[in-house]
Design goal:
With 633 residues, the protein is α/β, with parallel strands linked by helices. It is 31% helix and 24% strand. It has a seven-stranded mixed beta sheet with strand order 5-4-17-16-18-19-20, with helices on both faces. Helix 4 packs across helix 5. The structure holds adenosine-5'-monophosphate-propyl ester (PRX).
């Protein structure tokens, strides 16, 4: 891979070229992939409509790059090593040749069940290799997958399914996660009650849970596979560079989750480029990313980026604390993982268990550590460095988003400098700009502002599915001519970047992105609730906790019980990840005369700050603030 930068000097050189001549830069990277037809032009773009096209008129299929391309040289190399949830079950190793066969065969199953190019396929599965197979099989035949995280409720699935216009679902009977069996198929059945458009549900047998199987609609994965020739070689559908590869829903500051659309070629190239560079991939690496494939991290750095680069992806079904807090270290030791990529929230939760779970675990295979998803506090960074990396593994702090497809800012392992809590420097091709609230560019160092990106990179969001205007308004309208990330950022005296957190109404709870409006909508569905306001507050383990202020029609007799019921409603409407940590019943909310909730005040109170609440004189009813702060939970 000629595009791997191997020294700080090479990074600087690559960065300079990527800015001076982006088309030449990305054209050279793209040359190393396999195409049916090369592009006419590397880039056409404007950030007004917005309209971004990379590798215009190029033709390819991403699965040929992930699979077929590696068969000759490394068909017997493990593509996926899978570690099950339970320690008594055997792990699985799937080579590139086996994965290729498996994907072709399942792609034939999809075809047989009527899936066509461009159709949307919703995937709701646990962390098993078949999830990657399902995604790749969709990509093989040009269907657009939309993976939904296994923790989302039936209602959330139904919303996403309708928004995407999905006619096909791939699921499992259930999923093993820690000590629990998650009844995925039952949840899908609930989600599909009002979805006559869904023609087929393909069910993989994992937990052997009793499930209903609806005649004509539901089919078993294993039956369908048995009906397809084992040696089927499913020719890869020729896709345009800009054809959508997948939709992934994520939360924004408004109520409804957005279906972020990624395009085939640009996503493939940027995912692979960043994987190879950030982690400084070596041929013998075993890359262990602990994310769930239901999030973008799993899409890019468990599946597509890793496989396109010909790497070995170590995939784990369960959770870090099952059966005990030493599990991740057992997995690293057992499979000799060389890269560990996880979230600060996982590090903090393992830190809380002390050092005993590390005793006797051989972590000497580790070469690079990574973190993603939320700002990492220095204490967690040092613990990770000293106790996991034994002070000899670089830690890459990778900042990016669902919308960016791949890492936009990070140090490059052992190549560029690192600094605890800093994403440090932009990747080649990324042009960050800090702007003030009026949109003025903030130059110089030792400055803070809203983080924007002024030039497209190959895996930038193309649209929000079914609603392009929403994409424009959300990302390209706040600061015209720039992509707005929604994050605040500090650039230090050396020009290094530190992400300070969201500046919009999006929370980051245990690395999961949750919109305050979504949680409020869910709470407001509960009987007796008049209105609610949700804010984040610092939480030792989760990074941010969810604090909900709720106005009831009348004060409940049994407040504890009502709070439990509200939590249940949120679980039903969104999923357990969105359950508030604290609920406070309030008589009113601090509103301006124009009816706008002053969240700044609510945030301060939730943080425990009861003095210095700023100017409250413009409030409709300033007295309500005293009541709220005196009854803080
Ligand atoms: O606020 C930033 C935070 O996570 C947000 C993106 O969330 P999501 O789309 O779910 O993707 C998460 C995984 C890529 C960002 O807007 N974030 C992500 N990585 C970091 C981070 N905050 C600080 N440091 C990071 N390394």
């Amino acid at each position: 891979m000629n595009y791997q930068v191997k020294s700080y000097e090479e990074y600087k050189e690559a960065y300079a070229i990527s800015v001076a001549d982006p088309e030449q830069f990305w054209g050279k990277v793209a040359d190393e992939f396999s195409w049916h037809r090369k592009w006419d032009k590397v880039l056409e773009w404007n950030f007004t409509t917005p309209d971004v096209k990379w590798f215009v008129n190029g033709k390819l299929n991403i699965t040929e790059n992930c699979l077929d391309r590696h068969l000759q040289a490394q068909g017997n190399k493990p593509a996926i090593i899978w570690e099950p949830n339970g320690t008594e079950e055997a792990h699985r190793v799937i080579t590139y040749a086996e994965l290729h066969k498996y994907v072709c065969r399942f792609a034939a199953v999809l075809r047989k069940n009527g899936v066509q190019k461009g159709d949307r396929v919703c995937i709701y599965m646990g962390m098993i290799p078949e999830l990657a197979v399902a995604m790749l099989a969709c990509a093989r035949i040009g269907a657009i997958h939309s993976v939904i995280f296994g923790g989302f409720s039936a209602q959330s699935i139904s919303d996403r399914l309708h928004d995407a216009g999905a006619e096909f679902v791939i699921t499992c009977d259930g999923a093993f996660r820690g000590g629990k069996d998650i009844p995925l198929k039952n949840t899908i059945d609930d989600a599909l009650i009002n979805s006559p458009a869904v023609k087929k549900v393909i069910v993989f047998l994992r937990t052997h849970t009793a499930v209903s199987v609806i005649k004509g609609r539901d089919v078993w994965w294993h039956d369908e596979m048995a009906a397809v020739d084992e040696e089927t070689t499913m020719p890869a559908e020729e896709m345009d560079a800009e054809d959508p590869l997948f939709i992934l829903y994520t939360s924004g500051s408004t109520g409804k989750p957005k279906g972020v659309v990624h395009a085939t070629a640009g996503y493939m190239i940027y995912a692979t480029y960043t994987f190879v560079n950030v982690f400084q991939l070596q041929a013998s690496d075993v890359h262990f990313c602990t994310a769930d494939i239901g999030w973008i991290t799993g899409h890019t750095y468990i599946v597509y980026g890793v496989l396109c680069a010909g790497g070995t992806s170590l995939m784990y079904e369960g959770i870090p604390t099952f059966p005990d807090a030493g599990r991740l270290w057992d997995i690293v030791d057992k499979h000799k993982a060389t890269i560990l990529y996880t979230a600060p929230t996982a590090i903090r939760s393992l830190m809380a268990h002390g050092l005993a779970p590390l005793s006797g675990k051989d972590l000497s295979s580790l070469r690079v550590l990574g973190t993603v998803g939320e700002p990492i506090n220095e204490e967690a960074w040092h613990w990770y460095d000293v106790h996991i990396g034994k002070s000899r593994c670089p830690i890459v702090d990778t900042w990016w988003q669902t919308e960016t497809g791949g890492v936009l800012m990070s140090n490059i392992a052992g190549v560029t400098p690192s600094k605890p809590g800093y994403a440090t420097l932009p990747m080649p091709g990324i042009q960050p700009v800090l702007v003030d609230d009026q949109g003025n560019t903030i130059n110089g160092n030792d400055v803070s502002g809203n983080l924007c990106i002024s030039f497209p990179w190959p895996s930038i969001i193309r649209t929000t599915f079914g609603d392009h205007e929403r994409c424009r308004v959300n990302y390209f309208a706040t600061y015209p001519g720039m992509y707005f990330t929604g994050d605040g950022c500090y650039r230090d005296v050396d020009g290094m970047y530190r992400i300070t957190g969201r500046v919009d109404d999006v929370l980051n709870v245990s690395g999961h992105r949750i919109g305050t409006a979504e949680v409020e909508n869910a709470i407001n569905m509960h009987t007796g609730v008049l209105e609610s306001a949700v804010v984040g507050y610092p939480h030792d383990l989760k990074g941010q906790g969810i604090y909900a202020y709720v106005i009831m029609e009348s004060m409940p007799d049994d407040a504890t019980h009502t709070k439990a019921d509200i939590l249940q409603t949120v679980t039903r409407v969104i999923g357990a990840i969105a359950r508030p940590d604290k609920i406070q019943f309030v008589p009113g909310l601090p509103k301006t005369r124009s009816g706008k909730i002053m969240r700044r005040i609510l945030r301060k109170i939730a943080e425990g700050e009861t003095e210095n609440l700023g100017d409250t004189s413009t409030l409709l009813d300033p007295g309500v603030v005293d009541v709220i702060k005196n009854e803080r939970v």
